[in-house]
Amino acid sequence: MSGPGQPDPARNGVVQPGATSQDIYDGGMAVRREVLSDEHVDRANAAKDGFTEDFQDMITRIAWGGIWTRPGLTRQMRSAVTITAMVAHGHWEELAMHIRAALRNGLSRDEIKEILLQTAIYCGVPSANTAFKTAQQVFRDLDSIHEDPAGTGANPTPPN
User: Fold this and answer.
1) Which domain range does residue 58 map to?
2) DSSP string covering 89-127
């Protein structure tokens, strides 16, 4: 059971008022793992060194523990906003990561397509063109490892 300031699983990882720095980090890490996957976070943690350790700590506390844990938006909405920001700024590797995260957060491929169509109007057709290519590649990669083609975020099915 969670205590004061502890991430409460019943509240979808929301860090409570009065949380300690460690509570915020732990809540951020829990949400980061749920959204990006244990495998992704484990790779990022394994790659950190003395140069990148403070950055990894910062994004876990601030982005994941301070923003993604807030109750004001659903994870699907946060994914839609994040995808749009990645397209607007041309962060294609991050876009691919957040398309996978959006699927894990419950967005469908059709919803992602609609987000990308919206970005074509507000971020520009060339950026949306690259975003569609990025999404196609993510979907091909997921399909090739036998992940749920509907994009529900189901665990990969081992090949026969």
Assistant:
1) 9-67
2) HT-HHHHHHHHHHHHHTT--HHHHHHHHHHHHHHH-HHH
Nearest to 139 by CA among 101, 109, 98: 109
pLDDT digits (tens, 9 = 90+) for 20-33: 999 999 999 999 99
The residue assigned the tokens 């699983």 is 9
- What the block records as the tokens of 101 is 């995260």
C-alpha 57/C-alpha 55 separation (Å) is 5
137 and 83 housed in the same domain: yes
Q: How far apart are CA 64 and CA 57, in angstroms?
A: 10
Higher pLDDT, 155 or 122: 122
> How far apart (Å, rounded) are the C-alpha atoms in residues 58 and 74?
22
pLDDT at 152: 52
Domain annotation covers residue 151: no
Q: Note whether 84 and 62 are same-domain residues.
A: no
Residue 151 has pLDDT above 70, yes or no: no
- Confidence band of 7 (pLDDT split at 50, 70, 90): very low
Q: How many residues does the chain have?
A: 160
Instruction: Give strand pairing partners of 8.
Output: 14
